[in-house]
Design brief:
This protein has 122 residues and is an alpha+beta fold. The protein contains three helices and six strands. A hairpin with a 5-residue loop joins β5 and β6.
C-alpha cells in the first residue's frame, strides 16, 4: 500500500469513534485495529502512551461527560500527517467545545500520535 492509497480520513474517523464507544473491551478491540500499540496521545490536560493508558483516559472522559464524543468539522491530510477541526459533543448532542488535533500515521494508516489543542478553563 502506498502512502497515496491510505484514506487518512477513514483512519481518523475510526479513531474518533473510539471516544464514543462504551466499555473498555470495545475500546480495546477498536484500538487494535486503528492505533499503533505504542501510540502517544497528548492534550493540554494529559499525555498518555499505549492503548491501555489512552482507553483509561477515554473512560475518565466518559465519567465527566456521559456519551461524550467528537465530531470532525474539517480535515486535511498529506504525507502521513493530518489536522482535524472538531467539536466535542455531549451525549444529548449539545456542542460543549471545539478544538484542533494533529496526528501522525504509520505507512499502513494506523495512528502513531495524536495531539489535541483546545481551551482549558483556569
Amino acid at each position: 500500500m502506498s502512502n497515496t492509497d491510505i484514506d487518512y480520513r477513514s483512519s481518523w474517523e475510526s479513531y474518533a469513534a473510539i471516544w464514543k464507544l462504551e466499555g473498555a473491551e470495545a475500546k480495546a478491540k477498536a484500538c487494535r485495529n486503528i492505533l499503533d500499540e505504542a501510540v502517544v496521545y497528548t492534550d493540554p490536560l494529559t499525555q498518555r502512551k499505549g492503548w491501555s493508558e489512552l482507553t483509561t483516559y477515554m473512560a475518565e472522559f466518559h465519567e465527566q461527560i456521559p456519551g461524550g464524543h467528537f465530531v470532525t468539522k474539517e480535515f486535511w491530510a498529506h504525507h502521513g500527517r493530518s489536522v482535524a477541526r472538531w467539536n466535542m459533543v455531549g451525549g444529548d448532542g449539545t456542542v460543549l467545545g471545539d478544538g484542533v488535533s494533529y496526528a501522525e500515521y504509520r505507512k499502513d494508516g494506523k495512528l502513531t500520535s495524536m495531539t489535541g489543542f483546545f481551551a482549558v478553563d483556569s
